[in-house]
Specification:
Length: 369
């Protein structure tokens, strides 16, 4: 599991913590180069703020906002502060270490409001496939991250697709590459899917021509890896800043990030440990980077990102957590397949997160000098 540490500073509803003095982000990106070289040691620190407004029907309500709960050699989750006109506190799912701010609102509250700011440091990550380190093949890691989840089975259609994709591949790296290439060549991004998708792998494969968004496509990658014995997991987060890679689709507008959620993936490889993977972003570049849908991964626009995202990722993104089947504390609804968006419940049940007339939220990031 990722190591987690939390330095939490909490503000009450009556008196929010004073905002820290922040410097505006300075981005110096040249014209698209398609030549991003990840793996630098430079850390970037961001304050990421989520603001939620929930129009309430009669009765009580609850809101859950995910906050970063991952510490690794490429991300440090530093602190979280919050304010609300309800009763708010830091909460966990109780099983997987998923951290969130949970706010309760009493009947009669006209408009529920919650603001959460998390400070996080991120940097690029990259693997050198030519150098094997002293990373042990941990049995507990292997067991934990090859299990099926409610939305990611490891048998049936998933295993059939994985066995087909990896036919003739020898060793985990070759199998990973075969699955990664199969995803890029056989799965397409569908822009009409709401949010990041549901991550229901069987539903995708039953389509015959599988499609979806990042939570769907990378979930399929993870399931296929697990089905052939390679530990893999999804990382659920949000893009924080424009990309230095030269692709408009691989970055976020720091002032408006409510549609910038993105699921990445990683796989555990003997001698290398956890390695970044993102075939979903390859399919995003193919479908949306240009006005024309690119169908060939060897296309000059796609080839650089297809190569780099097998083992690398850019530090303009923050992970919330790596969990599936998340139980929200105090919720009446069923567990979440994953927690990457704010969630709300009222007396009428769980609120549609894509219904702005009921549930408004914004996310923004400010780089700290």
């Amino acid at each position: 599991m990722h190591t987690r540490r939390h330095f939490l500073r909490q503000a009450s509803a009556a008196s929010a913590a004073a905002a820290l003095p922040l410097a505006l982000p300075e981005f110096a990106f040249a014209a698209p180069q398609r030549s991003f070289e990840p793996g630098s040691q430079r850390w970037r620190t961001f304050d990421v703020t989520t603001q939620v407004e929930l129009a309430l029907p009669p009765g009580a309500a609850q809101v859950w906002v995910p906050v970063p709960s991952i510490d690794t050699d490429w991300q440090k989750s530093l602190s979280t502060r919050f304010s609300s006109n309800g009763q708010a506190a830091i909460a966990w799912d109780g099983a997987q270490g998923v951290q969130m701010v949970h706010a309760r609102f009493e009947p009669g509250t006209a408009k529920a409001m919650l603001e959460v700011t998390s400070r996080v440091s991120t940097r690029d990550r990259a693997v050198d496939w030519n150098v094997r380190g002293q990373v042990a093949d941990d049995a507990a890691t292997h067991a934990a991250w090859t299990q099926p989840t409610a939305l990611i089975p490891t048998d049936g259609l998933v295993r059939t697709a994985a066995l087909h994709a990896t036919r003739g591949a020898e060793g985990d790296v070759a199998k990973l590459h075969a699955i990664y290439d199969w995803i890029a060549s056989n799965v397409y991004r569908e822009p009409s899917v709401r949010g990041c998708g549901e991550g229901d792998v069987n539903a995708m494969l039953k389509l015959g021509s599988p499609s979806g968004k990042c939570a769907d496509i990378n979930a399929l990658f993870v399931g296929m890896c697990r089905s052939v014995g390679i530990p893999a997991r999804d990382l659920y987060g949000v893009r924080l800043a424009p990309s230095a890679f030269g692709y408009k689709e691989l970055g976020g507008n720091s002032a408006q990030l409510a549609a910038a959620q993105h699921c990445r993936a990683e796989a555990y490889v003997k001698g290398h440990g956890w390695v970044a993977m993102d075939p979903a972003d390859v399919t995003k570049v193919m479908r949306q980077e240009t006005a024309v849908w690119i169908r060939d991964v060897s296309d000059p626009v796609v080839a650089p990102v297809n190569k780099k995202l097998f083992g690398c990722c850019e530090g303009n993104w923050m992970a919330y957590n790596d969990a599936h089947d998340v139980v929200l504390p105090g919720a009446s609804g069923k567990p979440m397949g994953f927690l990457m968006y704010p969630v709300a419940e009222t007396s009428a049940g769980r609120v549609d997160p894509y219904a702005p007339e009921q549930f408004r939220y914004s996310i923004s990031a400010r780089e700290v000098a």
